[in-house]
Model the fold of this input.
Amino acid sequence: MSEFDRLRPTLPTGLWIDGAQTDPIDGGRFPVVNPATGEVLTEVSDASGKDALRALDSACRVQQEWAATPPRQRSIILRTAWELVLDRAADLAMLMTLEMGKALPESKSEVVYGAEFLRWFSEEAVRIQGRYTTSPTGAGRILVTKVPVGPCLAITPWNFPLAMGTRKIAPALAAGCTMIVKPAEDTPLTMLLLAQIFADAGLPAGVLSVLPAANAPAVTEPLLADPRLRKVTFTGSTRVGKLLIAQSAQQVLRTSMELGGNAPFVVFDDADVDAAVDGAMAAKMRNGGEACTAANRLLVANPVREEFSAKLTARIAALTVGAGDEQGTDVGPMVNEVQRKNVAALVDGAVAAGARVRTGGEAVEGPGFFYRPTVLDQVPADARITSQEIFGPVAAITGFDTEDEAVAAANDTEYGLAAYIYTQNLDRALRVADALETGMVGVNRGVLSDVAAPFGGVKQSGLGSEGGTEGIEEYLDTKYIGFTP
Ligand code: ADP
Done:
């Protein structure tokens, strides 16, 4: 029996509306493919605009009641969901590997990380603060309180099928908002299973809906045009984020946008090169490079460039490529053929522009959407790979001479999500971290994600923060009540 056949009886594959699975009004289904084999795992229900409005009806029906549910009660449900996700960690991890491709150890880490948002926001649900103060004239009193934004739409990507959902669902529920989730079409199964887990945790029907759809706008556009929806939160490409911001103007929606990145990873000549190589492995190869925080441009000081490049090449060349559920796999397949073609085109373009291939540089023959882990050195600054998000296991190295040159190169992008710097000079670390135009900076570390930290970008990388004490604010409106005592 295959791993998927073992999981199949416990997996919802219908739409999740009103606390249960249901068939779509138009009856459509679409396939979910295992990217390691190219084979169809199963089919799931395909939501239409009519289903979206059903889900919004049910969210609106329970919105007030959910907002009035004691914060402690909301907290307990989130905490129970955290426990249940961990109880089902092995199944969730296997499911993510099968529908998305990442190596099983990475899926297991994602389950723990994704679950942490449920625990964190269970703790934040009971700490929503306001204030009471006297106006400067002494005459008035100012009461500031926080209220849930209302029904929200979350649109999530395929690269972290669980965590990108929990990072939005948990703060929304903690704040007292209802939420409709439109998961990525490549990875709907993980989110459907999470909906089931929430129901098992005691979440009232209607508070959370999950609508897989082959045609995303068919579901999202009617919701964004409906005056009852109050917010959209999105993780995905900058292109789609811009469309959603434009569509959000119709009803003046609150928006949270986690968009594309083009993270610079800067290694100064005073860095511990071995530590920088370790960091680059994490920043580049985590999730097969399919992360918006992935190091897109490795900017390395010329005096240490050859050493760094040779050591990184040795590490990357030693990675085992294979199906994510095979023992010993380090790097799984790309999520689909489109993604693999994008990666191949960026590498080919860089090579044509003069980059040197130190390892990899090609797709892997055979079934599945594999691309060989790759190191490119001497990548010209104007190659397309330096301005586009690679989203694959490709490290692109460019040398620099001065700190000013490195900072200018790092900031030479319309994106501003994450940046990484390696240096042993504290003054330099603080100076450069200050000068970088990004929402997040890693100093001598290659992974930034932390449930307790605000994750978010500036410039065209997005609006708002997820996680930390900031995360719940995205789902709260500020209300001022003025009075004269
Ligand atoms: P990627 O290129 O990484 O797949 P996308 O931005 O295309 O990123 O997709 C992220 C999410 O946005 C997915 O859930 C996808 O279905 C959804 N999406 C794609 N296009 C649109 C659109 N025009 N309107 C609303 N959602 C969309």
User: Anything to note?
Assistant: The first helix runs from residue 3 to 7. The chain is about 40% helix and 20% strand.
